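Q: Trace token order:
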Amino acid sequence: MIIGDYEFDFKETHVVGVLNVTPDSFSDGGNFFSAKKAIARAKQMIKQGATIIDLGGESTKPGSDSISEKEELNRVLPVIKALFGKISVPISIDSCKPGVVAKCLEAGASLVNDVTGLRDTKMVDVVAKHNVPVIIMHMQGNPRDMQKNPSYKDVVEDIVDFFTDRIKTAEKKGIHDIILDPGIGFGKTVEHNLQILNRLGEFCRLERPIMVGSSRKSFIGKLTGAEVDKRLPGTIASVAISIMHGADLVRVHDVEECRQAAMITDAIKNA
């Protein structure tokens, strides 16, 4: 898969560095809200081993409210413009707004991370027009209501059905470079998240790279009692399990530590 100027063969696990340019994200809200701090953080994560920087300007934590397209662009565009051409990895734009995504792709982003899974036909058109790869994530509901009694007949099979439908829709528009993210914590209970991680290999039948974003998620806190900034051990455990069960990319906040965990897990898996 070609992302920007870079080829990804997924022979080893890729670490996607989370860069939230928001005042209210669940794990690092406000830490990198200024463009200057965000740019420095991106460069730091690349040195630590991130092979993609995933930039987001709107919180998608449970219960969060949407912001305007203008506000989201004010947050992310300065960062993309400052980084494009000056870093050695591609920039992913994490947004569900087609207008935001279009302007970010024009500014230098080369991958789309859509937490709503291409359910918006306008987003499908934007991705197709710019001919870029896309991450299709599964979310039941929306951030405002996704954690209000989520239910499934079979969480893995239901998500497989969702992905199958989304892939067909994308391919009809000429979109073939697709990464799948089952959406840990997005409209799922603790048990749902555990089942997804335990049965991650079942998504391999779709023959697309799989990304897992379990970093610092609430299920780790509910199982261990750890606060958000104390969930690195649980994150590392979930990263290793994800890789052993088929993940090709892991989306994380703690790049250096998770990169080392990924390297060791890859070595064991391929021994």
